Amino acid sequence: MRVRFFGGLSVATDDGDAVVPGRGQQSLLLRLAVDAGTTVSARALAEDLWPLDVPDDPRAALQSLVSRLRRALPAGSVSSTPGGYRLDVDRRDVDITLFQDLVAEARATGDAARAREALALWTGDVWTPGEGFDWLVRDLLEDRAHAERLAAAAPARAAPPVLPAPVTSLIGRDDELDAIRSRLTTDRLVTIVGPGGAGKTTLAVETARGLAGAIVVELAPAAAGEVWTAIAGAVGRGMRVRDTTGATSTSVERVAEAVAGRDVLLVLDNCEHVTGEAADAALTLLGMSEGVRVLATSREPLGIPGEAFVDLGPLPPADADALFARRVRSARGSEPTPDEHEAAARIVRRLDGLPLAIELAAARSRTLTLAEIDAGLDDRFALLSRGPRLSSERHRTLRALIDWSWDTLTDPERVALRTAAVFPDGIGASDARAVATAFGVDADTLDALVDRSLLTRRDGRFRMLETVREYGLDRLRTDGEEERYRRTAADVLTVLAARWERDVRGPGLPAALAWFDANDENLTAALRALARAGDRRAGARLLRSLLWPWAIRERSDDLRRAVADVADPTPPLDDEPTIVVEAVALFSATFPEPGGTTGLSPEVFLARRLELEEAAHRHPSEVTALIPPLLRLAGSVLAAGDGDAARTWHVDVTDAELHAAPPWSRAILHTLHAGAAQNAGDAVTLGVESGRALEMFTEIGDPWGTGFASQLRAEWLILEGRLDEALLVTDRSSDAIRGLTSVSDFLQQRAQAVGILLRLGRDDEARARAEEIELLAGADGSVRALAQAAMTRSSVAVAAGDGAEALRSVERIALEPGFPDQVVAWRDAQRAQALLLLGRHDEARDALRSALDCAARSRDFPIVATVLLAIAGWNAATGRRSRAEEALARAAAVRGAADVRDPFFLWTRARLAELPEAPTTEGPGIRTPLSDVDAEALAPLLDEAPLD
Question: Whole-prediction pTM value?
Answer without folding.
Answer: 0.68
